[in-house]
Every structure is written in structure tokens, then in C-alpha cells.
Amino acid sequence: MGILEEAHNVKVIGSGERVIVLGHGFGTDQSVWKHLVPHLVNGYRVVLYDNMGAGTTNPDYFDFDRYSTLEGYVYDLLAILDELQIVSCIFVGHSVSGMIGIIASISRPDLFDKLVLVAASPRYLNDVDYYGGFEQEDLDQLFEAMRSNFKAWCSGFAPLAVGGDMDSVAVQEFSRTLFNMRPDIALSVGQTIFQSDMRQIIGLVSVPCHLLQSVNDMAVPVVVSEYLHQNLGAQSIVEVMSSDGHLPQLSSPDVVIPVLLKHIHGDIAA
């Protein structure tokens, strides 16, 4: 295994002609896909990796400048695909990895058969004629809470994001992976994601996109998936799932995994 693969904890499992790459969101790691992976390994080669900064990665490798924009993560994804000599794949991206996949597909459309995006958002801040779900004041308070007492912030943020109480397995799981991040890295990653604005590039996407969304998600309102659907340059389809929260593949696997599999296996009807 090369340095790149080791740094990102890359795992390639399963067998099949087609390749599926799974990208995780903020505060999680590849374990967020644990309910999906068993359904894929008999039919696909499945690539799992951790974004730099995840609690499972070496914090010494985290370059604050490189990851001050989403492009740093895009370069990592493309480098991993090249290292594994992958020439085409289905990319499943959760949350920020949805946008990472979108940017990567604009740069290298040849590498991606389609993008399956779970709770992806091009911008979290409200703007004129755009509802992202947050005001700048909300984000400033969130960042200040992360700075002042990271552990307390994790305890409060996890149930909000997952959409469950502290006793639920999914909330405990997200709390664990969130708290595993080094606080200064978590703050930097959070700022990069929540202050990002990808609206100006989504029209350049040429790869078909499947947009999956919880009906209730504190981080990404349903109207955001509709905005993406209207503004992506490629063919797209939206499915709003009867799940709650920003990590539905973890909190509502019985609802979400069949939907994910349907979109992974199927194509957008013409």
C-alpha cells in the first residue's frame, strides 16, 4: 500500500466489474457506510477512504492551507482513483463529499459514470433568492461553540444533526467519530464546508446526478436538493426520503439503504 492509500485508510473490497467509491461527510469517516457496504460487495469493487482531517487520519498530515477550500479534498479523491488505476466509477458522496464529487467530476468527467449524492448542498448560507438554511450569525455562534468547548459542542450538535436523542445508536456513533477529530482541525474543516459556495460551478457538471435527501435535515433543507436539480448542468433526479436527519444512512438504514441501492443500480429514466 502506498503512502496516499495509507494516509486515507483506503480499503478496496468486494468483487465485480464496476467500481463504487464511497465518500463520507463532516465529522464522520468511512464507517458511516457500514449498513450499505454488505449489500455492494458481491456485485461491485467497493472503494472506501477517509477524508483528511477525519478522526481516523493522522492529524500531522492535515495541511490547513490545502484544506481551506474543497479543492484540497478533490485532489485527494482524484489521486486515490489514479493510484488505484480506476478508469470509471459510481461515486456515492455524503454531505460535503457530494460537492467534492461534483467538483471532481467537472475536472475529470471520464472517471465518473454517475454521482449519487446524499444530503449534498452547494451553499449552507442563505442569500438573496437562495435558502441554504443558515444565517451568518448562526454559523458564527456554531464556530464559537466549537472553539470554546469542543466536547460540549459535540454533545449538542450530534443529536441535532442526526435527528435523534442522545441514547440512539446513530447519535452515539456520530458523537464518537465527531469527537475523534482534533478540535482545531474540526473547526477548520467546519469553516471550510459551511462557508463554501459552489453555486457558480454546478452548471458545469456533465455526469448524471441522483440527489437523495431526508425530509427533515437541520443542515440541508429539502429546497436545496430542488435547487441542485434545477441548476445542475447534467441530467438529475431527486428523491426525498421519509428519513430524519443529516446522516440517514446511519440513522434510518431500513428506509435509506433500499433507496441508495435503487439509485446505484438504476439509471435516470430519459
What is the rounded distance between the termini? Answer: 41 Å
Q: Element order, helices and strands?
A: HEEEHEHEHHHHEHEHH
Taking pLDDT < 50 over at least 5 consecutive residues as the criterion, the unreliable ranges are: none
Tell me the Rg in angstroms: 17 Å
Q: What is the count of β-strands?
A: 7
The quaternary structure here is single chain
Rounded mean pLDDT score: 96
Q: Give the number of helices.
A: 10
- Which structural class best describes the helix and strand composition? alpha/beta
User: What is the 3D shape?
Assistant: globular
Strand order in the sheet with the most strands:
1-3-2-4-5-6-7
* Percent of residues in beta strands: 15-25%
Helix content: 25-40%
Short description:
This protein has 270 residues and is an alpha/beta fold. It has a domain at 3-122 and 198-265: Alpha/Beta hydrolase fold, catalytic domain (Rossmann fold, 3-Layer(aba) Sandwich). It has helices at residues 3-7, 71-83, 96-107, 136-148, 150-162, 169-179, 183-194, 222-231, 248-251, 253-265, and strands at 11-13, 19-23, 45-48, 89-94, 112-118, 209-216, 236-244.
